Amino acid sequence: MFLGGWLLIANLLMDSSTPPSDWTPRAPYNEISNYGNGRMGISGRALKSLRNRFSFTQLRFYCRKQRVRRTFHVTTVANSSGKAVVQYFTGEKDEQPKSCGSFVRMEDDNSQLASMCDKWGGHGFWGRKSNPGGYALFKQGPSVKDQHSWQPFLKSWKCDDYDDNVSTGDFWRTYVR
């Protein structure tokens, strides 16, 4: 789905207050056509294939949890800092990109996570040192240990919090452009 030039590559929507046990990112990128089911996301390999085909240069992370009343909504910048983030998550480079200066906050972002970029990954970088490289878009998103995180994966449903409780209508979306 294109939205103002953005292609939706993950759409995870809570249709109840009981989180799903898990979901699996899909391998072929044409699975993005299933965005309407509320349990769609493409795998790292599919993301790399999509980049090879369409040469996108930006990522956009968007989530909202009603219980915490905060929205995390950032877009990587259209320069070398933002490009490094795309290269990291598509597996083109293993080097963790610096977080501060690599994204901009969207108008509706009122998150604490975006203001703590110097603490992402424990050291101010996207991803985790213990698990470097791409293919981990949903496992290694922005995170401040034990405080705030963006993680819709592996039974973790975090959006600018560190709590897995969800409400009907909470969502996580990822886009490329």
Keywords:
single chain, 177 residues, alpha+beta, 7-stranded antiparallel β-sheet, 3-stranded antiparallel β-sheet, 12% helix, globular
Architecture overview:
- The protein is of the alpha+beta class.
- It has one domain (2-176).
- The protein is built from 2 helices and 10 strands; from the N terminus they run βββαββαβββββ.
- It has helices spanning 44-54, 80-89; strands at 2-3, 6-13, 39-41, 59-65, 70-76, 103-105, 143-144, 148-153, 156-161, 171-176.
- Strands 1, 2, 3, 4, 5, 6 and 10 form a 7-stranded antiparallel β-sheet that branches.
- β7 and β8 (148-153) form a beta hairpin.
- It is globular, with a radius of gyration of 15 Å.
- It starts with a strand and ends with a strand.
- 42% of the residues are buried.
- The model has no long low-confidence stretch (mean pLDDT 85).
Helix amount: 10-25%
**Shape call:** globular
Strand tally: 10
Please identify the structural class as seen in this structure. alpha+beta
Roughly what fraction of the amino acids lie in strands?
Answer: 25-35%
The average pLDDT is 85
Radius of gyration: 15 Å
Main β-sheet description: 7 strands, antiparallel
Topology:
Blueprint: E1 2-3, E2 6-13, E3 39-41, H1 44-54, E4 59-65, E5 70-76, H2 80-89, E6 103-105, E7 143-144, E8 148-153, E9 156-161, E10 171-176
Antiparallel strand pairs: 1-2, 2-3, 2-10, 4-5, 4-10, 5-6, 7-8, 8-9
Q: How would you briefly describe this protein structure?
A:
By secondary structure, this protein is an alpha+beta fold.
